[in-house]
């Protein structure tokens, strides 16, 4: 009995040592991600978690850092807490503040329409996120900063609504928000003029601008778990880069093509605005293209860590933003889980006939699409249940094909806009094609199959489960990531 117990202890010890070695190898390959997670845990625990969870998560992570041999990063973990203490020493309570506007967008409630000003307000020497509502009658221009007088209402921890009674513009200040808003409105009006179907124009305008004004459209996409398509994210930046890269390859050399791509994504970033998900996509795209320009390559997870690190240093409060959470968690699932779900799909088997190869390639495409969808949904599941208390099962089905169809619609729309600059009559044909094609896509979202329209509902889902759940997913996939998957990618690169 004693021998058996000792043998079990040895097996457990060997398994733990193997896990620790694979974890150490993973973090040595992705050091930026480890740094970013340390800052994320330290800052978010101090700012948003109640006691004792605000102490539990940093303590557990410190023990983990010791186990994987990265104990010096405990200093960074503690430093992030002091950093937040310095930035946000107390809750602001004043009635007058300095408001710096970052974005302006229309909003629609069940009772009225108006404008929503988003930005940061400085009260009592402290900067916090803030938004201000204003009616559409004589709204103040968002081209400068303001001194606001009124009442400050806390809508969430470190997030405020300011009920402004008086707006006083500050001279010699400037904001791009007003011009961005006007550009978006002009684009919407242009699409309404060129496209015959109003819903198509609203949908495509929302895709390009990231502002979803139509409540019915937002409801239809949320019911199917397709909200990420309406919000500008990496999906939109990938389409823009793919579109520009395809045509620029015929005009410029590889170096100049990358430079033009960098200019294009910077222009699109300033057009859309500094939303958390947009910032993440813009940072990763910029880092990736810059790496290609200087012939320095890094792993996707490390690029994700650099983007996370930059956003948290600039604004630790951003970790409470839902768009930030969904964006980085979905990337985590996509980059960490999908390779394992897709591991068996390596290359076409030898000895197949042409017809069999075509069938295999088609099935291979759908299997890969399913692995990507499943990976993202597995990572997002507890987050969706916490914030929305439901998970639509149709999202797994629709995410297999709907993003692909939307990417085609965006490609045709971008071609239409480019052709319109040179020949409006020819562009009218492309606008008709994208109008018809997009309307058929929207029919799929408006009338989903009722027999499959089911959701997982929960009245409440504790948020403290999310960190443990994500860490468990990481532990389950890390062994493959350090072994089999690296070999898999090596095989693919050698074949290419």
Largest sheet: 5 strands, mixed, barrel
Estimate nothing, just give the exact number of structural domains. 3
Q: Overall pLDDT, averaged?
A: 82
Which of globular, elongated, flat, extended, rod-shaped describes the shape?
globular
Query: In what range is the share of β-strand residues?
Result: 5-15%
Instruction: Extract low-pLDDT stretches.
Output: 482-496
Cα distance spanning the termini: 55 Å
Query: Structural class of the secondary elements?
Result: alpha+beta
Order of strands across the widest beta sheet?
1-2-3-5-4
Plain-language structure description:
With 496 residues, this protein is of the alpha+beta class. It folds into 3 domains: 2-87, no CATH class; 96-175, OB fold (Dihydrolipoamide Acetyltransferase, E2P) (Beta Barrel); 183-491, no CATH class. It is 65% helix and 12% strand. The strands form 2 sheets. It has a 5-stranded mixed β-barrel with strand order 1-2-3-5-4. β1 and β2 form a beta hairpin. α6 (198-209) packs across α17 (424-446), α9 (234-248) runs parallel beside α11 (276-293) and α16 runs antiparallel to α17. The longest helix is centred in the C-terminal third of the chain and has 34 residues, at 354-387. It is globular. Residues 482-496 have low confidence and may be disordered.
């Amino acid at each position: 009995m004693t021998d058996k117990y000792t043998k079990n202890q040895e097996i457990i010890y060997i398994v733990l040592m193997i896990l620790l070695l694979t974890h150490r190898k993973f973090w040595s390959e992705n050091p930026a991600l480890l740094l970013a997670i340390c800052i994320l845990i330290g800052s978010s625990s101090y700012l948003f978690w109640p006691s004792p969870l605000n102490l539990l998560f940093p303590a557990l992570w410190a023990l983990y850092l010791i186990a994987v041999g990265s104990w010096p990063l405990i200093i960074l973990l503690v430093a992030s807490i002091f950093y937040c203490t310095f930035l946000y020493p107390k809750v602001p309570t004043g009635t007058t503040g300095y408001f710096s506007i970052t974005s302006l967008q229309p909003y629609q409630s069940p009772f009225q329409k108006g404008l929503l000003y988003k930005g940061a307000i400085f009260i009592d020497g402290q900067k916090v996120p803030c938004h201000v509502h204003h009616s559409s009658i004589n709204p103040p221009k968002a081209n400068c900063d303001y001194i606001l007088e009124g009442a400050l209402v806390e809508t969430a921890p470190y997030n405020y609504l300011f009920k402004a009674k008086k707006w006083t513009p500050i001279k010699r200040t400037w904001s791009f928000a007003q011009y961005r808003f006007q550009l978006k409105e002009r684009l919407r009006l242009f699409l309404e003029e060129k496209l015959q179907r109003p819903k198509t124009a609203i949908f495509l305008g929302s895709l390009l601008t990231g502002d979803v004004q139509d409540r019915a459209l937002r409801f239809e996409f949320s019911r199917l778990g397709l909200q990420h398509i309406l919000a500008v994210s990496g999906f939109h930046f990938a389409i823009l880069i793919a579109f520009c890269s395809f045509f620029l390859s015929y005009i410029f050399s590889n170096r100049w093509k990358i430079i033009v791509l960098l200019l294009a994504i910077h222009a699109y970033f300033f057009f859309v605005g500094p939303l958390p998900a947009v910032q993440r996509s813009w940072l990763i795209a910029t880092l990736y293209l810059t790496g290609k320009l200087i012939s320095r390559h890094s792993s996707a997870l490390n690029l994700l860590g650099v983007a996370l690190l930059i956003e948290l240093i600039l604004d630790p409060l951003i970790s409470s933003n839902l768009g930030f959470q969904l964006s980085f968690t979905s990337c985590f699932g996509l980059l960490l889980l999908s390779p394992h779900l897709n591991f068996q799909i390596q290359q076409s088997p030898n000895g197949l006939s042409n017809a069999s190869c075509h069938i295999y390639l088609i099935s291979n495409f759908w299997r890969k699409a399913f692995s990507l969808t499943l990976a993202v949904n597995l990572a997002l599941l507890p987050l969706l249940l916490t914030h929305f208390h439901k998970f639509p099962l149709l999202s797994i089905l629709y995410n297999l094909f709907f993003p692909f169809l939307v990417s085609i619609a965006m490609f045709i729309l971008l071609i239409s806009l480019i052709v319109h600059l040179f020949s409006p009559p020819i562009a009218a044909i492309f606008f008709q094609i994208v109008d018809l094609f997009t309307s058929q896509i929207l029919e799929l979202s408006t009338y989903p199959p009722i027999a499959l329209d089911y959701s997982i509902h929960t009245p409440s889902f504790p948020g403290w489960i999310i960190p443990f759940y994500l860490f468990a997913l990481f532990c389950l996939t890390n062994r493959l990531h350090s072994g089999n998957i690296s070999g898999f990618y090596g095989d693919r690169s050698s074949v290419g």
